Amino acid sequence: MDAHLKETQKDSRQVYEGHFLKVQKDTIVLPDGKESTREYIKHPGAVTVLPLFDDGSVLMERQFRYPLDRVFIEVPAGKIDPGEDTLECAKRELKEETGYTATEWQYVCTIHNAIAYSDEHLVLYLARGLKEGERELDEGEFLDVYKAPLADLLEQVRNGQITDVKTVIGLFWLEKIVNGSWTPPQRPAGV
Predict the structure, then answer these.
(1) Coil, strand or helix at 91
(2) d(Cα 167, Cα 100) in Å, to the nearest integer?
(3) Choosing from 139, 141, 155, 175, which is the catalytic residue?
(4) Share of the chain above pLDDT 70, in %
(5) Where do you find CATH 3.90.79.10 in the chain?
(6) What class does CATH assign to 46-178?
(7) Which reaction is this enzyme known to catalyze (predicted)?
């Protein structure tokens, strides 16, 4: 059905390997038979946690992000380790970053946040039944944790204070889940 849009890899080489990101440069054949190149980042994937309190407020983080040289408001998230189940990763990241654990977990969706230049995907989970505990931040990780009403967070999305894509999408999902207009789908195999 989409064969007229398909690009085919002719050759591929890694041009950079960092701590967890790799950069590929591929020669491809376009649908019209001409050749071109594609440069993209290989990423192991990540999870995003939507921690929802019984009162409808959300557990949030404030963290400095070096590439944009500023503090961002975000939901908890983190990189998936090799071979790690995404739900186990979500539980680990919530505990490490915030100290909280949850008694209820629900798959929400998978998003691809940078499709033009990365294979990164984020698996979003809803966490309920939150219980406070001790944080276990990674070495070199610094962030503030706070609780905010969902309505206030949505206003911050509207006025441009929250711009992180995983957080924006997660908050929109939360709004729909809380008001009953959307029910998250079943967790697909392999997620």
Answers:
(1) helix
(2) 18
(3) 139
(4) 99
(5) 46-178
(6) alpha beta
(7) GDP-alpha-D-mannose + H2O = alpha-D-mannose 1-phosphate + GMP + 2 H(+)
Q: Is the pLDDT of residue 190 over 90?
A: no
Region class of 6: left (phi > 0), else alpha (psi between -120 and 50), else beta: beta
139 flagged as catalytic:
yes
pLDDT at res. 34? 97
DSSP 66-90: GGGTEEEEE--EEEPPTT--HHHHH
DSSP state of 185: P
Count of C-beta atoms within a 10 Å radius of residue 22:
15
Type of residue numbered 160: G
Q: Tens of pLDDT along 45-80?
A: 999 999 999 999 999 999 999 999 999 999 999 999
Residue 185 pLDDT grade (very low, low, confident, very high; cuts 50, 70, 90)? confident
The secondary structure of the chain in percent helix, strand, coil, rounded to multiples of 5, reads 20, 40, 35
- Type of residue numbered 92: R
Which H or E run contains 177? helix 165-178
Spell out the residues 6+ positions from residue 113 whose beta carbon is closer than 8 angstroms to its own: 120, 121, 122, 165, 166
Structure tokens given for 3: 């064969």
